[in-house]
Amino acid sequence: MTSRSGYWRFTTDTTPEGIREAILTHLRLSLARSPDTATPFDWWVSTAMMCQDHIVDQFLATYRAQKADKVKRLYFFSLEYFLGRLLPQNLINLGILEQTKKALTGLGLDVDQIFEEEPQIGLGNGGLGRLAACFLDSLSTLRYPAFGYGLHYEFGLFHQDIINGYQVERPDDWTRFGVPWEIIRPRFSQVIRLYGSIEWDKQKPVWVGGKEILGVPYDYLIPGYRSPVVNVLRLWRSKSTVEFDLEAFNRGGYFEAVAEKSFCESISKVLYPNDKTEIGRELRLIQQYFFVSCSLHDIVRRFLNEHTDFDDFPSKVVIHLNDTHPAIAIAELMRIFLDEHNLPWSKSWELVSQCFAYTNHTLMPEALEKWSVPLFERVLPRHLQIIYEINKQLLDSVPTTIPQRDELIRQISLIEETQPKLVRMANLAICGSYSINGVSALHSELLKKELFHPFYILNPKKFHNVTNGITPRLWLLASNPRLSNLITEAIGEDWPTDLEKLEGLKSFVADPAFQEKYELVKQSNKAELSSLLKQRYNFVIDPDALFDVQVKRIHEYKRQHLNLLHILSLYRRLLDNPNLDIHPRVFLLAGKAAPGYDLAKCIIKAINAVGNKINNDPRVNKKIRLYFVPNYGIWLASKIIPAADVSEQISTAGKEASGTGNMKLALNGALTVGTMDGANIEILEAVGEQNIFIFGLKAEEIRQLSATGYCSRKIYETDPEIKYLLDWLGSGEFTPGESPAVLQPLVHSLIDGGDPFFVLADFHAYKEIQSKVDQQYKDRKMWISKAILNTASLGWFSSDRSIQQYASMIWHLAPCLPK
Ligand code: 26Q
């Protein structure tokens, strides 16, 4: 097990020679290895330790300054942080990437090989977790005082293998060989309680009994890009409060004691691999409460270190809820004020309701978190009492004059009157927060108009929009060095912290010399990806083909099956007409399905089955190919995105809250094929309608169609092409040697399952826009100029802009610089 040893200080020399010495010293003194026996992993660890040396002093200075200035801090609460590999990102932010590469090369090492030794930190499912990671990068870059809080999962998001076309999951044991980044601080551990009961002591409730769990903080230091500020991501790991129960051992109850220990450790064992709510899982509720309680106690402790009067709490502490997953924090902070610090109810509520801000990340009503009251009462009895009281006051506060008051009260209540009753976490988050926001303009509007309408009526000023963003340090500088160099050559080197400077590229859109260089960049990225995929998976990909990319979690609403139906249609047309004049195209899809989401897994199987057929059919495989790339994550994204020509963003309108892959791809010069959904709409506004391919029903049209009755079976029966394609897909032809029923669930969902995401309704519009894509791609000059325009127009989608909006509009936060 590797751990950082802090007994010696290295000079933070940033020359290649200094870096080389630091790496060698760590290899010898921290790892007790010599260069002739060191493995690539040893070299990686030594390099990471050298990098960390450059970060720690900056961290100490940052914290010292924050404390001296008694600053207001942001506390970002998230169950997910999808960080990926930290070494390249940290080296870039510190400005020592090139020197480090030189040092490693000088030691006779292969830099890429060393970097790939780093286990990826996959503590997230998808967009929400990656957004949290991008936000941490921007917070440090913009010098805001901030802490991220979350869980130190022992197992992150599963690895996906594709075996015979099926997704097979493997556990992600990312900490197995130790993590040189983490600083374990057992002295700042917290003890939290679960289960038990409430006793009354002179009218004061006391939560007693149940289980006590220890939370141990693991700190990750987050440097900003060329910034003196280093913030902290503090992740809690659960442990038993008793390391070894000697008493139980002596009385022969050893196995019981071990079971108890294993329960405690199970809390932070594994990330839930769903990106949709799975109602009623006790361990998930415990995960949420465990990390929230540890974090809030840590925050109150830090506050009391620096201040004396709780009245100052809201001006020094803002807590951001990344979706409802940490919403129990509202009841927990109430409990801490009421029961642990003896503040009266009204004072506690006054403070609590000024501290929290909540971001919603989904419009799907079925994805809102709800917990059954009996479960809640068993696990968190005191919190249920508090929630009942908050609810009483909330409902009493509704003016008697308001129209349809009873209906409104039923909708905003924190309790859903079902059998059993349910606690609605979104309602708790809204009523306890002073700010609620969505993550794209459309999404925020729909929150006000539909999902949270009753709350909006009562309190319209609470509602905001902050459109998501992505960090250009990862999604351009680190992932696409060729394009980054070209941009710097053209407009200077300020763009990574001021992304709207990319506008400067607009004057090069029609410049033939620049176009040529831009095309060469894209071409090289495509060639690099082709050879990577050839090497790893034996995929055969012509770098001159159009690279058509759909990479994201697999979900019906994201409609990978709409993509697939179009590919099938192309296949059919090519078989019918071998001379069909289309530019060769490679369809690349990648993404994980939640392990319990059978239809999503069936979509993966269908993509692989159709791909297998097409790729091995010499009649068409020079024109089209279809590959599913296994185990999509941050690293694969950073390889695929710079090589994409077309970005598929084809969710059912009104379903994708924002999307961030859409931004990553457009920034890297892929043209979007997209619906009027999420941030696609704002991307359209930024790039102009000539530079994007928009198709399909709009959110309002989808709503109307649902209301008036959408019948997918009727489409199937009356549309010969759709009928043919669905029958073909379900015929068994694509799954030779397996039951012909393998793809039936997918076909069935589109016909008699009612096609809940309007795939058939949008099929023809999609097919048409795809043929427009094909025609336009043939005009290479025109296409390249549109790609350049996409890069030039995407500056606003930097996560720096998102964070600046949060800081000024919602958090009321000021930067703090180390002296
Ligand atoms: C909840 C309860 C139990 C188990 C799992 C969950 C759970 C976990 C993760 C529910 C949802 C998520 C993740 C959601 C997510 O990634 N949403 C995406 O957030 C992005 C950032 O705002 C948006 O761009 C995407 O549109 C949105 O889908």
TrEMBL record:
Catalytic activity: [(1->4)-alpha-D-glucosyl](n) + phosphate = [(1->4)-alpha-D-glucosyl](n-1) + alpha-D-glucose 1-phosphate
InterPro entries the record matches: Glycg_phsphrylas (IPR011833), Glyco_trans_35 (IPR000811), Pyridoxal_P_attach_site (IPR035090)
EC primary class: transferase
Family assignment from sequence similarity: Belongs to the glycogen phosphorylase family.
Alphabetical UniProt keywords: Carbohydrate metabolism, Glycosyltransferase, Pyridoxal phosphate, Transferase
Protein's recorded name: Alpha-1,4 glucan phosphorylase
Role this protein plays: Allosteric enzyme that catalyzes the rate-limiting step in glycogen catabolism, the phosphorolytic cleavage of glycogen to produce glucose-1-phosphate, and plays a central role in maintaining cellular and organismal glucose homeostasis. Phosphorylase is an important allosteric enzyme in carbohydrate metabolism. Enzymes from different sources differ in their regulatory mechanisms and in their natural substrates. However, all known phosphorylases share catalytic and structural properties.
Stored SUPFAM superfamilies: UDP-Glycosyltransferase/glycogen phosphorylase
Enzyme Commission number(s) of this protein: 2.4.1.1
Pfam families for this protein: Phosphorylase
Cofactor: pyridoxal 5'-phosphate
